[in-house]
């Protein structure tokens, strides 16, 4: 039995759950998975059995519980220091932490207008100023990281890191809603979308039966 357990929500909709799940998979860290369908009768009670915040994701390692996506990613980096889950160089780690936290604490227009939905494939039209400026900022972050690390590999910091896990749901959203991006960003999106772990998550999300009307968006 695995020492690690990750509690997640619906794969189709739960972008916060995807982040640590992808991180664990990409670093080959064994874990068992508990999936709790969200916003259904009894969901909150079930969530509270695993997560003091009543939200997913939550992670258990032996008798330690950690909740909140970025806290879980940080904890996993502490748990497996030999795996370089953050980029090892101090200045790279500083940038990786900054862009990961910027994602975690912001981008509300993207999060509200373009909710993650693995089933969605459309072109989103009602663009607002705040949405456009957040999309531009994400693209700028991806370009800056890629321009500094293109020699070392195809991810934001060359090799896959927490920063890629934090931005993976944004990649999915831009792809689902037909957001136009430049060539560097598009290449980065293709890299993330071609991860077999992410393809597996998407396939399982698409196959889920739950339909959450509040998380659905039309053009
Ligand atoms: N800041 C938290 C956000 C967690 C969150 O909002 N999770 C949502 C699903 S993506 C949730 O559990 N919703 C269920 C509920 O509030 O009942 C994180 O980074 O993990």
UniProtKB/TrEMBL annotation:
Protein name: Glutathione S-transferase
SUPFAM superfamilies: GST C-terminal domain-like (SSF47616), Thioredoxin-like (SSF52833)
Residues covered by the GST N-terminal domain: 4-84
Keyword hit for Transferase: yes
PROSITE patterns linked: GST_NTER (PS50404)
Gene Ontology BP term (one): L-phenylalanine catabolic process
Species classification: Bacteria, Pseudomonadati, Pseudomonadota, Gammaproteobacteria, Pseudomonadales
InterPro entries: Glutathione-S-Trfase_C_sf, Glutathione_S-Trfase, Glutathione_S-Trfase_N, Thioredoxin-like_sf
Organism of this sequence: Marinobacter salinus
Swiss-Prot/TrEMBL keywords: Transferase
Pfam families (alphabetical): GST_N_2
Top-rank lineage group of the source organism: Bacteria
MF annotations from Gene Ontology: glutathione transferase activity; maleylacetoacetate isomerase activity
